Amino acid sequence: MKKTNPKKLHIISLGCSKNLIDSEVMGGLLSKSGLRLVDKSDKADIVIVNTCAFINPAKEEALEEILMLAEEKKKATSKFQLVVAGCLAQRYGQELFPLIPEVDLFIGTGEVGNIVTHLNNFKKGKSRRAAVITRPDFLMTAQHERVLSTKALSTFLKISDGCSNCCSYCAIPSMRGKARSRKPDDILKEAVNLAAKGIREIIITGQDTTAYGMDLKSHPNLADILTGMAKIKSIKWIRLLYAHPAHITRDVLETIATNKKICRYIDLPIQHIDDAILQAMDRKVTGTQIKEIITQARKMMPDVALRTSLIVGFPGETTKRFERLLDFVREIKFDHLGVFTYSREEGTKAAEFKSQISEKEKERRREIIMSQQAAISNAINKSLIGSIQEVLIEEKSDRADFIFMGRCRRQAPEIDGITYVKDGKAQIGKIVKCKITDADDYDLFAEIVQ
């Protein structure tokens, strides 16, 4: 009997870590079904673009990628099937379906777990072009074997999906559904599975990690999840992202402070500090409460690295309110900080607000804060010169003077800076003690301490 070559699959993942995990889940399901993953679209029989639609730049990036693939498909000698998945498909799939005929299938976020069925229906001739947009209620489990990079040392673990906060500027609940927490045993089982694959660092993610368990009858505790994960022997670092300031609790801070495996690093997206703006955003927290959380965290952990994200140009952000935010940034001195300009998203409450601010002014305000933050980051990094830091060696550097690149506990992958390591004797995958010898606005430079 003649053997047939397996069909080849290429997945492009755009947007956040939560989306990346969905891409890895689809990759795992399709690999198990017999498809072979390839690294380029021009080698593939099936191309999946897993999209983001959080704000306008993300939508533009996703559409640009889809249209580029549509053109590639027209020119290709062997036509590939083009699948658009994720948040853009969930939000606009029905509208885009007649406009981009090169796309064979649009599937929303609720269909991640059904990807094999959809593609099998195509293979058997049961389906033609389709847009399958259902309730966004998919929730992965430890049974979903994700396809990770073979070189991965760190990876994200999604403890929940969706969001019930309903901030006035945000369309995520319409794309991802209400908050849905995974059961504690299931989360810890996945952590064990990841450890068995050689993962050294687990980065806990979700739309709001500190709302974990609120939707479950048993009300499991995030602090217990952190403690349980830290007991897994080969996991060396645990990092917490997306901690909502309205939901972070003292027991979570205490767990981070007292457990050596948990990085003293907290991602606390505050968005603003002015009470009128916070109220208009429906953030359910005040500026005073935000300051109290930061004070409490720094009192428990003087060496804690704090990251935040801000939105500038929100409707009603007067000059005085913006200056209040700028003064706060100067006062608090976050270790890491990102700034978004407000994106007017249809279907959200804030899109109808009066006192909308021009794009030019939003960008000006963003640049002011980022310029200020560069100076703050530089000063903080320079203060680390001479200190000893643990560094996870991740890959070779393209610099002649610093052979390796890695990260210390203060640096999350992709969003923060990196640490360059001088010594050529370092080994990829090892955590080594290094002395910081130099620093710039975002990166650190180090040598291994013998």
Word description of this protein:
The protein is of the alpha/beta class and 450 residues long. The protein has three domains: 8-132, Rossmann fold (3-Layer(aba) Sandwich), CATH 3.40.50.12160; 154-379, pyruvate-formate lyase- activating enzyme; 388-448, Nucleic acid-binding proteins (OB fold (Dihydrolipoamide Acetyltransferase, E2P)), CATH 2.40.50.140. The protein is built from twelve helices and 19 strands. A six-stranded parallel sheet has the order 2-1-3-4-5-6, sandwiched between helices. Strand 15 and strand 16 form a beta hairpin. Helix 7 packs parallel to helix 8 and helix 11 (319-332) runs parallel beside helix 12 (359-383). The chain starts with 7 loop residues before the first strand and ends with a strand.
- Class per helix and strand makeup: alpha/beta
CATH architecture of the largest domain: Alpha-Beta Horseshoe
Main sheet strand line-up: 2-1-3-4-5-6
CATH class of the largest domain: Alpha Beta
Q: Work out the count of structural domains.
A: 3
Within CATH, the superfamily of the largest domain carries the name: tm_1862 like domain
Beta fraction of the residues?
Answer: 15-25%
Percent helix range: 25-40%
Q: What is Rg?
A: 23 Å
Mean pLDDT across all amino acids:
92
How far is it from the N-terminal to the C-terminal residue, by CA?
61 Å
Largest sheet: 6 strands, parallel
Total beta-strand segments: 19
Number of helical segments with 4 or more residues: 12
**Shape from CA axes?**
globular
What is the third-level CATH name, the topology of the largest domain? pyruvate-formate lyase- activating enzyme
